[in-house]
Model the fold of this input.
Amino acid sequence: MLLQTKRAKVLGLLLGFLLFLLFICFSIVYGYTNTTWTTAIEAYTKYDGSNEHLIIQTVRMPRALIAAAVGASLGIAGALMQALTQNPLADPKIFGINAGASFFIVFAVSFFSITSLGAFIWIAFLGAAVAAIIVYFIGSLGRDGLTPMKFTLAGAAIWALFSSLTQGMLVLNEKALEEVLFWLAGSVQGRKLEYLQSVLPYLTIAWVGSLILARHINLLSMGEDVAKGLGQKTVLIKLVTAVIVILLAGGSVAIAGPIGFVGIMVPHLARFFVGIDHRWLIPYCAIIGGCLLLVADISARYIIMPQEIPVGVMTAIIGTPFFIYIARKGLTKS
Done:
């Protein structure tokens, strides 16, 4: 743990938040269309209807805010899942939650021609919830009950199942393929501010709820028997935590598609700074997650310019070596 004292952690949080704001500004200013910091400021103070001002207001600002919100949500979701399952590889995508949300959305587009964002949000929540319930049920089977390894294997199996079903539907329905292919790769490009506004109330509830639960999750991380001995209602805490993860993951998938590996990397990076106390870990995960996705999105604009690659591909490029490192270190508990 790098930051030992409360004062150091508060200072780190403030510096991290300033860096978070700076990356939002970078996302607004830099891209294929050449703009400057002055242009970005004048887009809101001296708007003249120019192409540069229009791009900043209608494209880059929504994109930056969505990346920040989704990154923060996935970072918190990863921390909660790792605490809930005692598994350092836990992540909404690895555990099949993102795949469940994606499958339900593609199913709705393919068979019911649903294109409403409001409908997408509820469908994504439903898909995330169904996937989480199935993974929990399968992982709990057997004499030993739910273990980190069984939970991981169940999540991987459900992820593979839903991903295969999704690909199968897209092969049979070319129209649906055109509508959701880029979204399925995980992207914040071309997303409108209305997307974030529609899902923000649910994400806000989840953000606040995760902070309220932080102290209880600390107790739960010490072991279920210890938590019960201290008077904690462990079943209720687990249920509420699962609902928060579903809100975070489902909301993120609804607006940006299934972006992976953020939930794996961010909690480990946050623990390096502040340790395992979730009262500090969760806000640090929010800031680091937002920064990570913003940096990944900015990088995605330049690698094959003038084309862009989906930010989900960038997080996979960054996250895969990290995932392998954790797995090779033997951190997964069986």
Observations:
- The domain at 6-328 is CATH 1.10.3470.10 (ABC transporter involved in vitamin B12 uptake, BtuC).
- The chain has one domain: 6-328.
